Amino acid sequence: MTMKSISKPVIIATSAALAVTGIGVYAWREEHRPPILEVYVFSLPSGRSMFVRTPEDKRILIDGGSNSNIIREITGILPFYSRRIDSVIATNAEGKNISGLIDVLERYQIGEAYIPGQILQTLGISSSTDQIYSTFLDTLSREGIHTSELSAGDSVALDQKTSLRPLFPVPAKQFTYSKASAPEILFNVSFGATSIVFLGNASNKVQKFLTSPPSTGSLTSSGVDQADVLIVSHSALPANVSPELIKKISPAYLVYSKTLDREGTKKKIIPDPFAYLSEDRKFNLKESGTVKITSDGATVQIKKARRP
Fold it and tell me: What tens digit of pLDDT does each residue of 94-149 get?
């Protein structure tokens, strides 16, 4: 039988059957997804974003970068037929990390949202709120999305075995904020015996606070503990991190973002607190692209993620 002798309806029917079979296989794989924690740290042109998918398939988007590129990243992770995201978290009020979240709010079904307990404007350090952040808050209100503030001392149950514990911000009476040391949500995600710490753009002052919180009866933050993975939004240059903090966290893996090569400049030589890590355990998003962290509750693995 030649191709010419095959009728057009038969070809259409065959193609449709194959498509249905493909969708069925895809759906079966999603339904039988292993009970693991998945964390994607995206490599975006501007801003930062992470996506957490818990063992029980709870989906949490943390920050959204500066534009709609985040939509493409999410599409490469979630089933094509699903528009559900259980939670979005804005870690700070900077437009470069918030703008993409607005696009997500308008295209996906969002369960709830979390924002910092305080920002520079509420502290009286900045005179006006970032317009993008204001638009983000307005969109949350318009879409009827329940919104809660997060601060150190809170705890968010992502599912029955996975939790998010904010480490920062703390009340103004416990820490002296400034534009250089602004409030942002820094946190620990725990599943079983494994944990991931996100320190964002925490200044040395904030890092020092987290390493040794003041001893007061009303202290909200208990600081950081040992973790398997440390994620920072800036370069991992020694000048940007506290050796004491790294010693306390003692991460087995590091995810960071370095865009500027400063070799050849004159600067004070500082011992590298990450020298103990082999190169295959340090991931520069600007070189490796998006990375995927997985945990079965006992061990953690991290690798470059395939692009969608």
Answer: 999 999 999 999 999 999 999 999 999 999 998 877 899 999 999 999 999 999 99
Looking at residue 72, its amino acid is R
What type of residue sits at position 137? L
Q: Is 230 exposed, middle or buried (0-12, 13-18, 19+ CB in 10 A)?
A: buried
Helix (H/G/I), strand (E/B), else coil: 288: helix
- Which residues are paired to 68 by β-bridges? none
Domains of the chain, start order:
33-304 (3.60.15.10)
Q: Is residue 225 a contact partner of residue 188, using CB atoms and an 8 Å limit? A: yes
Count, residues in the chain: 308
Question: What CA–CA distances, in Å, run from 72 to 67, 265, 274, 282?
Answer: 11, 38, 33, 25
Q: Residue 278 to residues 35, 96, 247, 249, 281: CA-CA distances in angstroms?
A: 29, 32, 16, 17, 6
Longest dimension (CA), the chain: 85
CA distance 256 to 283: 6
DSSP string, 224-268: ----SEEEESS---GGGS-HHHHHHH--SEEEE------TT----
The rounded distance, in Å, linking the Cα atoms of 43 and 40 is 9
pTM over 0.85: yes
Q: Is it true that the peptide bond before 35 is cis, omega within 30 degrees of 0?
A: no
Give the pairing type, strands 291-295 and 300-304. Answer: antiparallel
